[in-house]
Specification:
By secondary structure, the chain is an alpha+beta fold. About 30% of the residues lie in helices and about 30% in strands. The chain folds into two domains: about 100 residues, Aminopeptidase; about 150 residues, Aminopeptidase. An eleven-stranded mixed sheet has the order 1-2-3-4-11-5-10-9-8-7-6, sandwiched between helices. Strand 1 and strand 2 form a beta hairpin.
């Protein structure tokens, strides 16, 4: 089994047992489209340590845990940041032992589609519609402005957009945009359908000039109606735990957070 096959096997085992993929979407796409170019990967039977741009993903398959695999992989990892998807207690113990500090929490919030959604009312001076090919530049511009301080999402470029649009889940109707009467794109809500039963509020971004008009709620609601019409049973989203305005909007729309649905970033001291 080569090193990338080890990664695939460990990922599948972790998803089945933990309910979380140890690789985030960006790292998964990086391996899929670029292999190990610009990355560092160490493996042992049942575990791997992958470093991309200074960020560590360390994972051990359930049947290999408690055997020192993570301890052996971690000291060689040349990284300053690391994620624990699912806030696994083993990751917390490993971090404390090796001088990593808990620095950031990303919440997963969920909402069943069985709960009735508020009616979608679009103001007369706006149009809410699905994505068109000529929207790409505006989507990237608004995304960059909205997430300028976001460590992951703000770096999305044309190549990254194209990679995501090549994924099996891509649906132009699921990237919902709002435009003004002149046709200028003001914001968007990119939804994602993981399976027939599960959808996601993937990205919501509002251009700086259009903020304060309630477009975030409007577009979020439009995306929720879109996913409900597709027949999913549940919709999830990711939000920074300290982003109080966003948490408030999502909570008001029926999203809730459970303690186990938390992803934790650690920084090396």
């Amino acid at each position: 089994m080569d090193r990338l096959e080890v990664v695939d096997a460990v990922r599948r085992a972790c998803v089945e047992d933990d309910g979380h993929d140890p690789l985030d979407e960006a790292a998964g796409l990086r391996l899929k489209h670029h292999g190990l170019h610009g990355a560092e990967l160490d493996t042992e039977p049942g575990g791997f340590a992958l470093v991309i741009d200074g960020e560590l993903t360390l994972a051990v398959a359930p049947d290999a845990r408690g055997k020192g695999v993570a301890t052996r992989l971690l000291p060689d990892a040349a990284a300053t940041r690391a994620w624990s998807h699912g806030d696994h207690p083993g990751a917390a113990r490993l971090a404390q032992t090796h001088g990593w500090q808990r620095a950031r929490e990303l919440w997963v919030m969920r909402r069943p589609t069985s709960e009735t959604l508020p009616e979608l009312v679009v103001p007369d001076d706006l149009e809410v519609r699905g994505y068109r090919d000529d929207d790409a530049a505006s989507v990237l511009t608004i995304n960059a402005a909205s997430f300028a301080r976001h460590p992951e999402q703000g770096d999305l470029d044309a190549a990254g957009l194209a990679e995501r649009m090549a994924e099996p889940w891509w649906d132009p109707a699921g990237l919902i945009v709002a435009t003004d009467s002149a046709g200028e794109l003001l914001g968007f809500h990119w939804t994602k359908q993981h399976s027939p039963a599960l959808g996601e509020v993937y990205v919501v971004a509002i251009g700086p000039a259009a903020q304060g008009r309630g477009l975030g709620r409007l577009l979020t609601l439009a995306g929720l109606h879109h996913l409900a019409d597709r027949g999913v049973d549940e919709v999830l989203l990711y939000v920074e735990s300290d982003n109080a305005p966003a948490v408030h909007v999502y909570s008001a729309l029926g999203f809730t957070h459970r303690a186990g649905d938390t992803h934790v970033q650690y920084l090396r001291r």
